[in-house]
Amino acid sequence: MSNGVPDFFEIDFLGVEAKDSGDAITIRYRLNGVTSIHVVDGGFQDTGNHVVEHIQKYYGGSSIIDRVVATHPDGDHLGGLRTVLEELRVRELWMLRPWLYAQEIVHRFKNISSLDYLVRALKNAYPNVLALEEIANRKGIPIGEPLQGAAIGAFRVMAPTRARYLDLIVSSDRTPEAEGVQKSTLLSGFGAAVRKAGSAIASLVKGAWGKEVFSSEDISAENNMSVIQYALLCNKSILLTGDAGTESFSEAAAYTPVVGLTLPGIYRFQAPHHGSRRNVSTEMLDQWLGQRLPNKPADGQESFTAIISSAKADPDHPRKAVIRGLIHRGAKVIATEGRDIRTQVNAPDRGWTPVQGEEYPEEQEE
């Protein structure tokens, strides 16, 4: 508290409504008398205006953003940030640019001896990141490197580490063939179509309380590049996860002693990748959120809140298995589904009313 004004935070998960889900998160917080605005991802390109309008309407008419974080290269997270960078004054942009590391990894690609060729190939592979870099350079916005340990205002980057990020660039299906690396075909060409079709028609089975069935399918290297951020605001622990997978969560968990976080113990948890069951596991949820409870908590007695960014028109997200897994550990689960959702402590009143949590699904995907 400073000058009698209490610290506060408000985190808005904006409704990114398209046929596929996307992420756009705006945050305003006051810490030790200083107020900051922090944006994490911006949804699709069409989402950008919504992000700008939301900040100007609810964050005191501000046209300044202290920090923008681009969690990973996918268009459902970065598209709208083009508008944010163009329309508002951004003091810092934080994002990973694969081509900056080309000199360190060029020797790991077979049949590539030219550093310039690898740089061009990486820029072609990640057009969303390149577009943001070009805007930032033109407007003089400094770009930070969100690797483990970086401090982005009140938030600390928990993952990825530099070493793992370099491995992910090399192993990605988007980048040139690497020496001794078996690249997945799940996310390219025919394989992607088969997986997408299979996910849309996944059959449901009834499951008793506590039974969990998650997927062992790999996630893309790009999703595992996601920046996981942690902050302690108003003595509440907040974890923002992008599209991170279990590998990323394991890496982040190993870093928790450095930031003074004791697991389990998350107050506000962003369920990764719009509630995909390929991004979580029983072991990961146990570690971060706690063991499964013997019974479902009564309404209003939940121990933490989990928020899922998912579009109403997206039939694949969120997965029932993920909603079940979160509720098993005492969560109130809220999905955006075309709505803007705010979670806050001590924040200015907007007249918004509390939203109902998701019902516990009796069925889950096989």
Task: Note down, in words, how this protein is organized.
The chain has a single domain, classed as 4-Layer Sandwich (Metallo-beta-lactamase, Chain A), CATH 3.60.15.10. A hairpin with a 2-residue loop joins strand 12 and strand 13. The model is unreliable at 185-199 (pLDDT under 50). It has 366 residues and is an alpha/beta fold. The strands form four sheets. It has a seven-stranded mixed β-sheet with strand order 8-7-5-3-2-1-17. A seven-stranded mixed β-sheet has the order 9-10-12-13-14-15-16. Helix 1 (48-58) packs across helix 3 and helix 3 packs parallel to helix 6. Helix content is 29%, strand content 21%. It starts with 7 loop residues before the first strand and ends with a strand.
Q: Quickly name the level 1 CATH class.
A: Alpha Beta
Report the uncertain regions.
Answer: 185-199
Tell me about the largest β-sheet.
Answer: 7 strands, mixed
Write down the CATH topology. Answer: Metallo-beta-lactamase, Chain A
**Tally of alpha and pi helices:** 12
In total, how many beta strands? 18
Structural class: alpha/beta
Please report which band the strand proportion falls in: under 5%, 5-15%, 15-25%, 25-35%, 35-45% or over 45%: 15-25%
Strands in their spatial order, largest beta sheet? 8-7-5-3-2-1-17
Overall body shape: globular
Corresponding CATH superfamily: Ribonuclease Z/Hydroxyacylglutathione hydrolase-like
Rounded mean pLDDT score = 93
Q: What is the element string, with H for helices and E for strands? A: EEEHEEHHEEHHHEEEHHEHEEHEHEHEEE
Radius of gyration: 20 Å
Approximate helicity band: 25-40%
Domain module count: 1
